[in-house]
Amino acid sequence: MQSWLETVxxxxxxxxxxxxxxxxxxxxxxxxxxxxxxxxxxxxxxxxTLLPWSWTPVAFTLLAFLxxxxxxxxxxxxxxxxxxxxxxxxxxxxxxxxLFVTYERSAYGELLSAIWLPLLVLYGLRKQPSLLQLSLVIxxxxxxxxxxxxxxxxxxxxxxxxxxxxxxNIMLVFRAAGAVALGxxxxxxxxxxxxxxxxxxxxxxxxxxxxxxxxxxxxxxxGDAFHDHVLRSASWIAIVMLVATVIALWFSRKxxxxxxxxxxxxxxSAPDILRFLMTATTLVILFLLVPLSSFIWxxxxxxxxxxxPWRWLLVLSVSMAALIGLALRGSFFEAKTRRTIxxxxxxxxxxxxxxxxxxxxxxxxxxxxxxxxxxQRVTFSRGGFEGTDEYTAANTDNSEIQQGLPLVRVxxxxxxxxxxxxxxxxxxxxxxxxxxxxxxxxxxxWKAENKQIEIxxxxxxxxxxxxxxxxxxxxxxNGTTITARPHRDDGLIAIPLQPGRSFIxxxxxxxxxxxxxxxxxxxxxxxxxxxxxxxxxxxxxQVS
Length: 544
Fold this sequence. Notes:
Blueprint: H1 2-12, H2 32-35, H3 38-50, H4 56-76, H5 82-93, H6 96-105, H7 108-113, H8 117-125, H9 131-142, H10 146-167, H11 171-186, H12 188-196, H13 225-254, H14 271-288, H15 294-299, H16 313-327, H17 338-362, H18 373-382, E1 408-411, E2 439-446, E3 450-457, E4 461-468, E5 473-477, E6 480-482, E7 492-497, E8 500-508, H19 512-543
Antiparallel strand pairs: 1-4, 2-3, 3-8, 4-7, 5-6, 5-8
């Protein structure tokens, strides 16, 4: 909600693509939008603009669920009849982990990323040319949720490699590699800054105590009541899904198509290859959920930043629903009589009611008073929120940023008037006249990514802004760029002032990593357009 509100505020200020979250750290800001993929907060901001804010989370969830069902149906119908594909899509939509993500965790980025995983399977295994489609899915996955994107790329690598070996078709690997390269290029405007600017923040705090992989293996115990409660829920969900997957695997071995259609000759592969790949995926996920896999988590690139092994249940959802779809193939799910259609419809309706009711009973939690939408809107407009640990500026302590700070303070020294986080975290600001310097202060503009201040002092001093110092800020005084700025423990910008009038501008600047990311995305977009035109010409030639 904070990110959605912030996005809309940026739009009102004329910034279409936000980069700085000003409401974090009680108004001092943080570079959240640099690191968090954009699709989630852009969609939330758009819905918040069109709808009342109290409706926005509901609308977001509904859209995500509908898109998940449609994407899985599109994938499943490649290997199963439409009726069985429809049931499997409903199972994917109603699987316990997706409901857990929605009801208890409200992890909207992860929920939205579930749309793209079935399409990885579809376009990764198709024998027809699908490099462009696969690259677009990979780009969308990275622009939706970074942990899901890491899982998705490893998932794609696993199924494509196994399919290539089993079918003796090395072109599947080359196509997937090309799609990954093009997909990363299309998303480079986000990925390059997010990777490069990790050196400017305390990114390692994302995997601190309680957030490490070793703290969250199945039925683990850390002593933190809340963490252990969530882990216990996730562990039981994993058991239920693994059991359902095994049962579906057993019945899928016994099922077979009652008839073959002409279109099946052109499908990506026979159902047995899908069964083989989903079984292999399930075994790998089971291994990753237990402590025996620790060495893989710590030696595989970026895997440790998933934080929780049970996040792999998102991928397991694809395997479980796909195997259920394969198990449902047969005469009953191919019959078109009114009786069978009505029976299937009533069965799925009953399943939806039961699963939603169970999810509401087990996972749904009412908002605390400080977390409801009305309170969050008030907090956003008045004081801001606590900062995110991993987005804290390097070598600073965001718990020393005081609440209720004035936008600008003129002080004798650059490092004075700082809170002691050992006594209290983020205490209320208390004025200290001993540190203050008399000044004529006028704030001409204070927007999220552009600020203008005029200060007139009779002595040398320091202007301390309620703004976290970050390398992207371009600061000028009377037209002269200021690059050397004193360091404060709370990370706020301190600007040295000379006696007299000082006209200060602070602007969020596109640094070289941002420029490189944009250039790579533009180049990749040109390649994608060329591939599309080439494919279109080939199809037109075949038709003629």
